[in-house]
Amino acid sequence: MKCFVYKSIKKADSYIYIYEKDNFECIPEQLMQLFGKPEFTLEFELTKDRKLALADANQVIQYLDEQGYYLQMPPKNNLPI
After folding, report:
1. pLDDT in tens, 24-79
2. Which entry of 19, 35, 58, 70 is 20 to 30 Å from 25 by CA?
3. pLDDT value at residue 14
4. Could you write out the DSSP letters of every residue in 50-64?
5. Tell me, what CATH number does 54's domain have?
6. Under 8 Å CB-to-CB from 75, ≥6 apart: which residues?
7. Is residue 80 predicted with pLDDT exceeding 80?
């Protein structure tokens, strides 16, 4: 299935994955306020076997099916000390 990825203009290295392009209705308003205006980044075919850089494809699919979106935050080991 198609997956659409948007990056945050407010939070570096934060991304939202959704199934339907430009449809943010399933994302809580408070999260959208923190995330800022989503900037379209990528469209790809999401499958269980797909290798993703910072997420597990099965987990992304599960979140998309259950809540309609998947939020990818920066890795914790990327934070300054």
Report:
1. 999 999 999 999 999 999 999 999 999 998 889 999 999 999 999 999 998 775 55
2. 58
3. 94
4. ---SSS-HHHHHHHH
5. 3.10.510.20
6. 54
7. no
Q: Rounded CA gap, 52 and 9, in Å? A: 21
Domain count of the fold of the chain: 1
Domain region containing 41? 2-78
The partner residues of 4 in beta bridges, in order of sequence, read 18, 43
Asked if pLDDT for residue 81 goes beyond 80, the answer is no
- The per-residue pLDDT for 74 is 85
Length of the chain (residues): 81
Contacts of 13 (CB under 8 A, 6+ apart): 73, 74, 78
Give the Cα separation of 58 and 47 in Å (integer). 8
Locate 81 and state its tokens.
């000390």
3-state secondary structure of 35: helix
Sequence-ordered list of residues with C-beta below 8 angstroms from that of 30, at least 6 positions apart, any chain: none
